[in-house]
Amino acid sequence: MAPMEAQVLIRVVPSYARGLPISPPPPRFELSAKPLFRSSPLRSTASRPAAASTEKPRASAIMEASGFDSEGREFKNAEEMWGEEIGKEGDVHKRKEWYRQGVGYWEGVEATADGVLGGYAHVNDADIKGSEAFLKMLLAERFPDGGRGRSLVALDCGSGIGRVTKNLLIRFFTEVDLLEPVSHFLEAARESLVPESGLAIENKATNFFCVPLQEFTPDVGRYDVIWIQWCIGHLADDDFVSFFMRAKVSQLLSP
């Protein structure tokens, strides 16, 4: 039987959690007419391939709207805002500094559910419940048996303290690798996911990668599912697209 193609999953943030902070807050871009355009990094169309169509994309007109960020600075469009935040193309130093500050914030946050959820630990159970329903739906679409009895491997991106791995992924995947740039979060995950002494555990957390998402390349053919939640909002547009392209290539080259 042919192996399941790798799936890159972005867990849609439930309505009750949309107010969760993603700190240090990526730039919030609001249209000049005042309505909130987006509370996480704005995805401009500049870094995306142009559609082969004579019809002018409606989104492009929206992206060209002027606006201001959460600090009150005005910009002609989202591209100008990103230029201010991470520099122009080729400005490696400014981009690295932007990401460094993001990791620096989380390095000052306690390695607890309340810490990684920005004080909203009470949404954990509802989040896991919604994520489980989403995952079961996907596995049911891919396998007649819902994936039961198969040796599947997942990558938990932005794993933090292993909250999603421990409460969800470890129950569905034979192996789970964790990817997290904040070292004390990853160590907390490692300690939390150690099997109890004397117990034979079929499913396990295998690898712990202390690497930023924008710098990570998934191993070809290793993962059946790549799971991404709120951490995706920390990436600049081009890094967002680049990671998905790397994941797609690893899927296409799978044996």
Beta-strand proportion: 5-15%
The largest β sheet comes out as: 5 strands, parallel
Shape: globular
CATH architecture field of the largest domain: 3-Layer(aba) Sandwich
CATH superfamily of the largest domain: Vaccinia Virus protein VP39
Give the neighbour order of strands across the main sheet: 1-9-6-7-8
Domain tally: 2
Strand element count = 9
CATH topology of the largest domain: the name is Rossmann fold
The separation of the N and C termini measures: 12 Å
Gyration radius, rounded: 19 Å
Total count of helical runs of at least 4 residues: 8
How confident overall, as mean pLDDT? 78
> What is the chain-wise order of helices and strands?
EEEHEEHHHHEHEHEEH
Structural class: alpha/beta
* Proportion in helices: 25-40%
Point out poorly predicted stretches. Answer: 12-25, 31-62
CATH hierarchy, class of the largest domain: Alpha Beta
